[in-house]
Amino acid sequence: MGSDEGLPPGQYVPRGWPVLHYGPVPKLRPERWDLRVHGATASGRERRWTWPELDTLPRAQVTADFHCVTKFTIPGARWEGILATTLAELVPPAEDATHVMLWAEYGYSANIRMTDFLAGTTLLATHRDGERLTPDHGAPVRMVVPHLYAWKSVKWVRAIEYLTADRRGFWEERGYHNLADPWREQRYSYQEDEPPA
Length: 197
Ligand SMILES: Nc1nc2c(c(=O)[nH]1)N[C@H]1C(S)=C(S)[C@@H](COP(=O)(O)O)O[C@H]1N2
Ligand SMILES: [Mo]
Known about the structure:
The chain has helices spanning 51-54, 84-90, 114-117; strands spanning 34-39, 47-50, 60-67, 73-83, 99-104, 109-113, 123-128, 131-132, 142-144, 157-163. The protein is mainly beta. The strands form two sheets. The chain has a five-stranded mixed beta sheet with strand order 2-1-10-5-6. Strands 3, 4, 7, 8 and 9 form a five-stranded antiparallel beta sheet that branches.
């Protein structure tokens, strides 16, 4: 293990890039695949992109550490894909949209605040470190929310739902922290009742 300096509390740098998820790796059916932005949109309508259509959206790169709540941190991952802010320009959220639910294949989900979605480093990633994502790391597209614990970085993402009230996602319903800031070690839901440090 290298130096843990500069990492959030309790984190370490592992060898390689671990694969971590609940359930099986979904099988990709490109002809049936789409990505939807729905819920509390400004227009009241949803938008949907097929796989070839998604390829036409403007692309960007984000370099950031990636922190799993099981305590490994991947330092300096170079992600490439479509910024969440780009999606929000294409499909503006309604004025009263405060949160976003990220939905994956098989119903895995994670909730984040609209401010997390619009943070500027949140993206829909297709590549990491210059290589296309492999199926076990979330291909064809995964969310990356680098400033939060990685269970919020939903692999195999299929839908982005704007919400006008917060709702807990898959792990948030099962004992994990609603906000998941690694710098505050917001790991477990029981910490939500603690006074801020
Ligand atoms: N769809 C889906 N996305 C998921 C998960 C999952 O179970 N299902 N696990 C999360 C967790 S807990 C982590 S740490 C990261 C791991 O990403 P990696 O396997 O690319 O390292 O994916 C996140 N995204
Ligand atoms: Mo994780």
